[in-house]
Each structure stands twice: as structure tokens, then as C-alpha cells.
Amino acid sequence: MKTSVSWLGASYGPLDDQRQGEVPETAENKETTVLVVDDEPRMRESVRDLLDAYGYTCLLAGSGREALRRLDERPVDLMLLDLNMPEMDGFQVMQQVRKRHPDTDVVVVSGETTFESATEALRQGAQDFLRKPYAPDELSRVIGSVVHKRRLERNIHEVHRRLEASEQRYRFIVNNSPDIIYMLDDRGRFSFINERVTALLGYTPDEVVGMHYSDLVHEDDLEKARFAFDERRTGSRASQNVEFRLVCKSGPQSYRYFESRSITIELSAMGMYRDRAERLEQGFVGTYGVARDISERKRAEEIINYQLYHDLLTKLPNRALFRDRLSLAISRARRSGSRLAVLFLDMDRFKVVNDSLGHLAGDQLLQTVAARLDACLRESDTLARVGGDEFNLLVPDIDGPEDVARVARKIMDRLKEPVVLEGYEVFVSFSIGIALFPEDGQSMDTLVKHADMAMYHIKGRGKNGYEFFSDHMKAHYHRQLSLENGIRRALDERQFELFYQPQVDVCDQRVCGMEALLRWNHPERGLVLPGDFIPLAEETGLIINIGSWVLEQACRELGAWNREGLGDRVLAVNISAAQLEEPDFEQRVVEAMKHHGVGRGQLELEITENVLMQDMDQAVTKFRNLASHGVRVAVDDFGIGYSSLSYLKSLPLNTLKVDRSFISDIRSRSDKNSIVTAIFAMARELELEVVAEGVESQGQVDYLKRLRCPKAQGFLLGRPMQAEQAREILRRGLH
Ligand code: C2E
Ligand code: MG
Ligand code: MG
């Protein structure tokens, strides 16, 4: 807008928008409120006209007091203040303004020309000074510059505010990061670190700034850390996720939660350069990095690793870790030409303890034994639990067999002392097989297998001892293997046969029953007795199939007896532990009986005491169930096991078969001290029938007669015989 104004009789041309220092009338001027304070009305008016022309919002006041009132009413950007006014002069007004309205700028106007009043006004906070009379462009310039300055200040203030907000935002983000964020200077000292360091390491950021990074790194990890902390590369080549440990602050003031003393971190870092484009050595200013606390993850990994490679009961290494160590030891021995030994240790009779004292006591025994074994060893030896009661031991760097024999003897010696379990003293012994590298095997599997074979060898020869592997064991092992295959074939090719041995009433010589005994018609070896193959069949599980066949065959035979009218006799069948454990055992027995027409009381199952004791609860349930179907139960080989008669009371027992060893002990008909006497007394008490096994002499028969033992079985009374012959005997009724 171009206009011309007259002021104090003078006329001025239109204002030039472009002139420097002058403020063009703009929409912004409208937002600037100017308060003109002058006691001269003419003066006020003309200034107002002028300001209007520039587009400012103009207010007027004729006195200092009025000016202050106006200021109280609304905010004013700029005050044109006359210094010379009656009542309240400009200085007094300024004083109030400064106090109550510090945002209002003041330009003083006065006729006084002295330097003092001008400087005084400026000292009191006036922005500028105009001397009366002044030309309109001078007024415009002064106002323009004050307004300009105000705007600049406002802008600066705004920029400052935004900067501060942004700084606060970034600080918040950085300090609340779950990771440590830091910067190092070019000499590896911390120039910045966020507050996370306090929670993780116990230092305040101020303490860390200035420290060298190596002061925070675990001494064992320095080498690794140096590469990451000294990172000068940027981009994808920079360090990513390097793992190492940082130490926590120590000393009395250290934070109590830093018990671990160090944390594991994963560090990513990159070099920082003055000029982003130019990555020259002289432009390197330091490193920026982020360290993440991965201690928790590490701990979890450690636990998982521990569980993967250890037996949790004994805390010993497990088979996987043993194999790992053995494989390493073999490669090392191969390189250095040294020797090592693998020991296979199997606890003798662990099962008996476990079954009679319970699993908790069994666990406790294993723990105690493991600790004792461990105490016999050197740091470099590895003892592992590889099965229920089986341990493997690796002894590296041995000079010869004598070294290992010493270890084995030490172990056996250490175990001589009994372990007290639930008030009982339990004596523990081990069968130990030893294989040496390189002579007994070159590979891990062969060494373990040969140590195992040697262990079985010593087990078979009375347990509690050690034995070195030798080639003849291999032959034995191969015989076992071919025997196993032979049993499989025998089942397919019907090479098994049942023989029958009479049970005789000693008083009237009548055959009252038979025991079915298994025979194997081996194509090459001829007739093989059960003692030569049943243990292996039990070990391999083949006994289940054999047992099923025996039951089926025995019931078929009973069916045949019934058809011939011989069905008033009992047929006894031997049962193994594994058969009893089969979930459908009773069902199979009952089905076989039904299928072949076997009546109640005709079939008697013989089971040894130890099998019964393995799982008494199971035996009670199953035999009660079978008894309800008319199946009789006999305890075989009674007297050599660990059971007590009171245990047996809970079973639906019919017969006790007194073990052959007690019968053979009977020397004369007047043998009073015989244990048999006691057994008979007890059996009578429990209302059980008694069968004396292994009767071979007339003296024994006479003795049994005196004891009023009704039944006996033995070579004297009848050897095991084929089915047809047995039926013939039954037909005749006497043996
Ligand atoms: P057992 O059940 O105690 O059978 C009695 C064993 O003593 C039989 O041996 C029998 O031939 C033998 N014997 C009988 N009278 C005399 C004697 O007067 N003197 C001597 N020295 N021995 C006598 P066998 O047939 O060799 O059977 C051995 C063991 O094999 C049996 O002992 C039994 O535990 C087991 N067995 C036999 N057949 C089977 C079967 O079908 N299944 C299962 N699971 N085991 C069986
Ligand atoms: Mg028997
Ligand atoms: Mg027997």
C-alpha cells in the first residue's frame, strides 16, 4: 500500500517498501500491537495515523498510568514511550513495565537530547531511542528493527524449543534403550554412554565417560573385545554381535545385584568419521556401538547344554558327552602316539536293591556311588552314566594295563564300604570291563563294545571284579549273537518242544501233575537245555514270543489230557518276568485256556520269587485276576531269593516249590537241622501246598514222607520226558 502522510506540517512521500530497515506493511504487521504513550494528543494522533498506514495495530495512552492500564488489558508488543510526562515519567513507566510486562519492548521518545537520558533509558531496558522531532521513516525504521528483532528472537526461541524437545526425545530413547549405547573417542575412551550402563554394570554414565573400554572388559575376553571396540569399519563389514563379558563395578559400593560380577554382551560397533563421504584415517573420530545384555540367554543356553550333556540324577556327563570326549581323546592319542583306556562299569545286583528298597533309595544309591567313583579319578578322566546302573570311564594317557588295573582296584576298594540306605547297609560292587586303545580297538564304538564284552565276561564269572578285553571274548560274543539268531529261527521253524516232568505224591506214589520244561531241538547242537538259552532270550526280549508259544503248547497238551480223561492232574508252566509285564498277559492265558478247553485248577503258573518281588503290586493284581479264572500260582525255586513269607501272603498262592539246593542238603531221614523243616512248617501255616524239587535219592523221599510233604519232583521220581511218554505215565497213574 502506498500512501502519503503529513506529520507536524511536513509532508512525506509514499513509503518505499524496498528500503532497508523499513518495514513494509504486511499482514504480519497487523499482528504487532504498538502502544503510543504521549501526553500530547496531537502527537499521539499523528503517530497513530502513521502506524495505521503501516498496518500495525495501534493503541493510545495519554499518561503513564493509562499506559499501564492498557498493558494490563491486553498484551502489547511494543510501546512508544514519551519520557517527559507529568505525574509519571517514562522511566517510572518503564520500571513497571519491566516488572509486570517483560515481554513488551519499549522504544523511548523524548525531546531531551542528552546522552545521559538516552543511555539511562537503554540501561533500563529500552530497545531503542527516538529523538523528537523525528521523521516518519526514522520511526518506521526503529519500529521495524525492533519488530524484526522480536521476530528473530521468537524464531530463535522456537528453534531452541524444538531443538530441546528433539534432544529430550533422543535422550529418552537412548537412555531407555534396553541396550548400552556408547561412543568412544579415537583413543578408545568413552565419550558418551547411556544410562543403561548403571542398571547393567553398576557405573553411572559420568563415571564411565573418560574410562578406556578395556577397563570394562573381562580380562579373558580382551583379545576378542579389542576387535569389536576398536572398530573402524562401517556398514555391513563392521562388527556385528560379537560376544564377550563386561565386568561389573566392584568395591563396597557395588550394587548388590551384580553378584555375577560380569555379564555377557553381544556387541555391534562401527567407526565414526568426520565427513561421512570421506572415510580417511585422519577423519576417524571414534566408534559408535551398541551392547546387548545376553546373560539371561547365555544362562538358559548353559542350562540346556548342561541338560543335554549330563545325567541329571548324578550330575555326571551322559553318553553324548562321553562319546564327544572319547572321540577327542582318541584323535589326541593317535596324534601323540599315547594310549588310553575305556572302562565299562556295571553295578552288581542294583536291580535287587531298587526293587526291594524302592526307586528313591535306588536313586540315592546311584548318587552316592557316582560321587565315590568320581572321587577316585583324575581331572582328565571322564566318568559318565550311560544307563540305569551302567557307567563308562575314559582314562587317557596311560602307560600300560597296570595303570588301569590300579584305577579299577581303587574303585573296587573305595566301594567296599557299605552305603546306608533307609537304615540298611547296602554293599555295592561293580563288574568292570576294560578295553585299551590302540590294541583293543581303533574306533570309539569298538572300544566301548569291547569294554562291554569284558564286563559281561566278568559278570558271568561271579561279578565284582575287573577284566581286560581279550580276543576270545569276541568269539563268545559272536556265539551269543548266533544264539540269538538261532532262537529267532527256532521259533519260525518249530524247533522248540515241551518236555514234561512228573510231580509225585510221596505217600501214595501217584503222579498228581507235571511240569512243562522247554527244550530246543537244535539242528546242529542237538537237544539244548533252557539254562543255555533262556537268559539270553530274557535279555533280548525274545522270551515273550517263546513264552507265548509255551503257554499255547501247554494248554494244547492239557486239552489232549482232558480228551483222554487225564484232566484231574495239574500242569505247571514256568513264566518269566518279561511275560508278566506284558499288559495283556492275563488275557492271553485265559484265551489259551478257553481255546483248548482247559478247566479251572488245571493250569499252574510257576514264577520265581525275584520276579514277584520286582513289582509286587503288579504281581498281586495280575495273579488275583488269574486266580478268579481258576489259574493256580506256584513260587518256584523258593528259599534262594530275597522274599519273606509275609510278603507272599498277599498273593493268591497255591504252591511253594522248595529249591533243589535245600533238598540236596538232606543227607539222612533224621536230618533235623534242615531248613526244609522250617519251610514246611511255615507253608503249612499259610495253607500252601509244597513241592520238593530235585529229589534224587530214596533217603530224601523218606525224609519228605516224615515231614508229611505230599509232593515231590526229581530225577528219582521221573525225568523230564516227551509228551507222548508223559501221557502214558498219566494213563498208568503211577510213575
Ligand atoms: P525249574 O522251573 O526249577 O525246573 C526244574 C529244573 O530242574 C529243570 O531243569 C529240571 O530238569 C531240573 N531237575 C528236575 N529234577 C531234578 C533233579 O532231581 N536233579 C537235578 N539236578 N535237576 C533236576 P531244566 O529243564 O533244565 O530247566 C531249567 C530252568 O529253566 C527251569 O527251572 C526254569 O526256571 C527254566 N525253564 C524251563 N522251561 C521254561 C519255560 O518254558 N519258560 C521259562 N520262562 N523258563 C523255563
Ligand atoms: Mg519250574
Ligand atoms: Mg525250580
UniProtKB/TrEMBL annotation:
Residues 33-147 form the Response regulatory domain. The modification 4-aspartylphosphate is found at D82. Its cofactor is Mg(2+). GO terms for biological process: cellular response to nitric oxide; phosphorelay signal transduction system; regulation of DNA-templated transcription. Residues 480-734 form the EAL domain. Pfam families: EAL, GGDEF, PAS, Response_reg. One of its GO terms (molecular function) is cyclic-guanylate-specific phosphodiesterase activity. It comes from Sedimenticola thiotaurini. The keyword Phosphoprotein applies. It catalyses: 3',3'-c-di-GMP + H2O = 5'-phosphoguanylyl(3'->5')guanosine + H(+). This is cyclic-guanylate-specific phosphodiesterase. Keywords: c-di-GMP, Phosphoprotein. Residues 166-236 form the PAS domain.
